[in-house]
């Protein structure tokens, strides 16, 4: 794998992001990228859609959300959805995307990020726990809410 880099979702990479494939059985744990693209368009002020690119190949997608005025502090910096292409999983892409959101949170002075996921054998719960996310609750739909404290750099 070449050096990964992050790009804002744009006209040049949206089609590739929309065609990311998952491993069999994983599709039940995450909405299609097309849903996230529509949501990003509607909520342009708070959404943070990004892709991970390896060379010139889009290998992952992250739908983040930043709302510093959110009533619930857990949702000030959130990973709403994340898709890593099935052929590129377990190669650091997901960790790269989580770290990118954490870096953005730090730059905004936010000291924790939240992830929302659905539990299941093929779901992302183990991945998030491995990165240090701690379960702190559930959404009204039964999804797990986890948070990760990130160190804000002194200015």
TrEMBL record:
Pfam entry (one): Acetyltransf_1
Keyword Transferase: yes
All copies of domain N-acetyltransferase, residue ranges: 4-151
Keywords: Acyltransferase, Transferase
PROSITE patterns recorded: GNAT (PS51186)
UniProt entry tagged with the keyword Zinc: no
Record-linked InterPro entries: Acyl_CoA_acyltransferase (IPR016181), Bact_Acetyltransf (IPR050832), GNAT_dom (IPR000182)
SUPFAM superfamilies per record: Acyl-CoA N-acyltransferases (Nat) (SSF55729)
Superkingdom of the organism of origin: Bacteria
Listed PANTHER family: AMINOALKYLPHOSPHONATE N-ACETYLTRANSFERASE-RELATED-RELATED
Protein name (record): GNAT family N-acetyltransferase
């Amino acid at each position: 794998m070449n050096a990964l880099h992050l790009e804002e979702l744009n006209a040049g990479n949206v089609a590739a992001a929309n065609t990311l494939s998952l491993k069999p059985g994983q599709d039940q744990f995450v909405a299609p990228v097309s849903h996230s693209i529509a949501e990003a368009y509607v909520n342009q002020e708070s959404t943070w859609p990004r892709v991970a690119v390896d060379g010139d190949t889009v290998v992952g997608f992250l739908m983040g959300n930043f709302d510093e005025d959110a009533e619930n502090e857990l949702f000030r910096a959130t990973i709403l959805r994340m898709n890593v292409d099935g052929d590129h999983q377990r190669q650091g892409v997901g960790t790269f995307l989580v770290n990118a959101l954490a870096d953005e949170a730090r730059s905004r002075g936010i000291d924790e990020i939240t992830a929302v996921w659905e539990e299941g054998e093929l779901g992302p719960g183990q991945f998030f726990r491995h990165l240090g996310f701690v379960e702190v609750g559930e959404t009204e739909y039964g999804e797990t809410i986890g948070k990760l404290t990130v160190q804000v750099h002194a200015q």
